[in-house]
Each structure stands twice: as C-alpha cells, then as structure tokens.
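Field notebook, page 379. I keep forgetting to write these up properly, so this time I am using the form the group agreed on. The chain and the ligand, 4'-deoxy-4'-aminopyridoxal-5'-phosphate, are recorded exactly as supplied. Prediction of the bound pose follows.
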Amino acid sequence: MNPSIIREILKLTERPDVISLAGGLPSPDAFPVEALREASARVLRDTPREALQYAASEGHGPLRDWVAGELRGLGLVVDPGQVLITTGSQQGLDLVGKVLIDAGSRVAVETPTYLGALQAFAPQEPVFAAVPGDDGGPAPEALDAVADARFLYLLPNFQNPSGRCLDEARRAALAGAAERLGLPLLEDDPYGALWYDAPPPPPLAARWPEGTVYLGSFSKVLAPGLRLGYVVAPAPLYPKLLQAKQAADLHTPGFNQRLVHEVLRDGLLATHLPGVRDRYRQQRDAMAAALARHLPAGCRWQRPSGGMFFWVTLPEGLDTLALLPAAVARGVAYVPGEPFHAGTPQRNTLRLSFVTASAERIERGIAAIGAVVREALAD
Ligand code: PMP
C-alpha cells in the first residue's frame, strides 16, 4: 500500500476559497434528510433492540429481498440468498479481491478505471492487465489476451472516471466473449440510477449471471455516509465472500440497514430520484457549457449521459499532475488522470466532478482551469 501524492495535494482543496471539482461527493442538498430523520425515529421506536444488536453477516433479510426485487426490474434474476449487504460497495471490492486474487495473479481492468478499486485489490498483490479499448469501452476482442485473469473489473454505467456508458452491443459482445473464455466479470454499478437522458441497458450480470459478480451501492442514490452497498454473487462463490465478510467486520451496521429498508419500503426512491437527476442534469449541462466556453482548442471531452464525471484530455505533452498546484493557486481543483491507469498512464487527462459544486462555481472553476491550460500551452 502506497500513500497517494494526490490525496496530499487535494487536502488543500478543503479550503473554502478553492472550488473543488475533484472529489466525487454527492451534493449534500440531494440527501433525503427529512425521510431519514423520520425513518430513524420509527426504527428506534419499533425495533430498537433488534436494530442495536449484533446481526446476521449476510445482511438484514428484508433489505436483501428488496435488492433482489429491484434487480429483477433491471433484468437480473436474483435469489435474495445471493445478496450480501456490505459496508459500501467499496467493501465489496475488498472482499472480492480477498477471495479471488492470489499474489501474482492477473486482474484485468479497463484503462482508465476506478482508482479505489485498484487500491482495494492492491494488498492482494495482483498483476494488473489493462484491457485496451476505445471511446465505447473495452474492446471485446482484447479479452482473449487476458483470458487467464482471475476476473475482469468493469464499470458499464457512467464509468468513474471517464463517464462513458457501454451501449447494448458492447455489453452483449463483452459478456459473450467473457462467457466463451470463462473469464469471470466483476461488474461495479454505483451510478446506474443516475441517468440524465435515458436509463442504461441491462447489466452484464443479466447476460451471464453464472460468471458475474455484481456490486451495487446506496451511496449515490441516498447518502454515502450510510455506508451501505451490496454484492450479488453466483451461488458457488457466495459462501467464500460471506466468510471474508465475517472476518472483516462481522456484519454491516444493522441500524443503517433497517433505516434504509424503512425508506425504500415507503417508495422513497421513486419520489426522490427524479429530483436528484434534475439537479445533476442541470449541473452536467452547466459544466458542458463552461468547458466549451473556456477550454482552448485541442482539449477533448465527451458529455456524459449519467453519473458524476467529465473526463478531459488536454493537448499532448501537458501533465495534469504538474499543473495541479497552479490550478489550486487559481482556486480550483481537479483529479489528475494518471492514478486511474493501471497500465501506461495518459498524463494529459483529468477528472472533473459536476455534482458537488453549484453551476455558478462550476463556471468559475472551469474558467480557472482554462486559464491554467492556456498558460501552460504558452510556456
Ligand atoms: N465503485 C465506484 C466506481 C465508485 O466510484 C465508488 C465511490 N466513489 C465506489 C465503488 C464505492 O462506493 P461506496 O463504497 O460508497 O458504495
């Protein structure tokens, strides 16, 4: 495990005078505070002793049932016995890593990919194999070269960091190739419900359920501080993940599970999510407009159709890690793209979050980034 230079630099961004487009923090204004306050009082009134007691490692039964039902709506037929409630989907990554990786075994990843997954797998000492691809995602024909990997880690919906969503054809081709090769898939899907144009196609797990482990999260649809996520595993793998969960922390906090089940049972998502989508759609549009206005020619990005991030490629030769102090000095922060690459890093990339800052701060922040890039190009 290595400390992150980027975290050190980003500590500076906690200053109120810095507009942070760096962290992937959901907007606190989008948290369903009132619903959680009321549900919390109900849990403590109706089942206080159960909620405060040690509980089952698998998770709270009614919440597992709810997850299985929700996934059926996405085309994924799941038995509640395959659902393991975790302390965020980040714990799902940790548990899968512990169960499936041995030191020196290969793990296939997209490039770029979620930095937190690389960090979660790293203690098991895998050898990462970056799967090449294009703007549409990893190339299905590239999977032959990683057929011996323990699994392929994929983010089909509004990827962190690139924002891209795999289309129907790419999903079918990737799931087909993985099944043909017997290459297990680890599908991470914390952003699927945050679509702003149209819902994404069904998950890969719906196409090859026997070979896919699916990770979901309540962090982006309710609130990350609840630390609630889930793993859906093929039945033969489930007992090993459960053992790893027991060893890690016995179980996910029972109070939080009951609290969340309480609001889900009341149908909160159906009333809450449209407002979250509206808010984030406006912020995405604000960032798209600001990028078009302020970034000089030669910079490239795609407008994401969901999730939280823009991925920007600056002109060749610029290094976004080296430019970060100048950006912070001008009052804006982003995450340099380098650490999101398991293979050869593209140093001219950066990630911007559009969900935390207001449209007005996004505009000022992007103007400052534009100024830094122009200055660097003039050097
Ligand atoms: N996977 C991805 C792709 C993420 O972006 C995140 C959060 N940033 C996580 C997993 C972890 O989320 P949580 O533990 O809050 O569910």
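OBSERVATIONS:
- Residues 5-30+270-376 form a domain with the Aspartate Aminotransferase, domain 1 fold (CATH 3.90.1150.10).
- The chain has twelve helices and 15 strands.
FOLLOW-UP: compare against the apo run.
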